[in-house]
């Protein structure tokens, strides 16, 4: 199993745009071969902070995720939203 944990800070005025982009990425990521878990958590203390927890069966499955159309769309959409 390969697990990736990522923390992201988003500009407060961009939180809703970030969440919308994440919904699309999440909906498609959980359908990927090898995906075991794909969680996006928003902090209750600071709504501009997020944690991604991604689990794939293999390192190759995790790498393949980074080449999917939905990941690339997410990456391009959220670029510049980080705080």
Automatic annotation (TrEMBL):
Residues folding into a coiled coil are: none
Record's Gene Ontology CC terms?
cytosol
Record GO terms (molecular function): monooxygenase activity
Pfam families on file:
ABM
Gene3D superfamilies from the UniProt entry = 3.30.70.100
Indicate yes or no for the key word Oxidoreductase. Answer: yes
Under the heading InterPro entries, the entry gives: ABM_dom (IPR007138), AI-2_Isomerase_LsrG (IPR050744), Dimeric_a/b-barrel (IPR011008)
Specify the domain of life of the species encoding this protein: Bacteria
Q: Where is the ABM domain?
A: 2-83
Keyword list (alphabetical) reads: Monooxygenase, Oxidoreductase
**Which PROSITE patterns does this UniProt record tie to the protein?**
ABM
Q: What is this protein called?
A: Quinol monooxygenase YgiN
Name the source organism. Answer: Nitrosomonas ureae
């Amino acid at each position: 199993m390969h697990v990736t944990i990522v923390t992201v800070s988003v500009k407060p005025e961009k939180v809703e745009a970030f969440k919308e982009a994440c919904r699309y990425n999440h909906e498609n990521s959980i359908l990927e071969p090898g995906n075991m878990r794909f969680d996006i958590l928003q902090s209750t203390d600071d709504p501009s902070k997020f944690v991604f927890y991604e689990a794939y069966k293999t390192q190759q499955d995790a790498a393949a995720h980074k080449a999917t159309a939905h990941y690339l769309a997410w990456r391009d959409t959220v670029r510049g939203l980080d705080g």
